[in-house]
Design a protein that fits this description.
Strand content: under 5%
Shape: elongated
Largest sheet: none
Oligomer: single chain
Mean pLDDT: 84
Number of strands: 0
Low-confidence stretches: none
Order of helices and strands: HHH
Number of helices: 3
Helix content: 55-70%
Structural class: mainly alpha
Amino acid sequence: MAGRTYKRATLEKRLERLEESLYKEKRRLHGVIGDTGRGAGMRHTRCTPSFRREEELEEKIRDVEQLVARCDP
């Protein structure tokens, strides 16, 4: 994304899609955490979900927000 130029409308649409994906991922994680029983730590070696996807989406959102800020109004 660094070398190309994008229209502001395209970047805003991309930002909107990324924010929607982040919202869905947070809801999914909330459900996974909510479904984990109280004694799961004793029975399972891994009792927490991965937050990798959420972190990647947040990084992409920051990148697109920077591109929107640099874009002509």
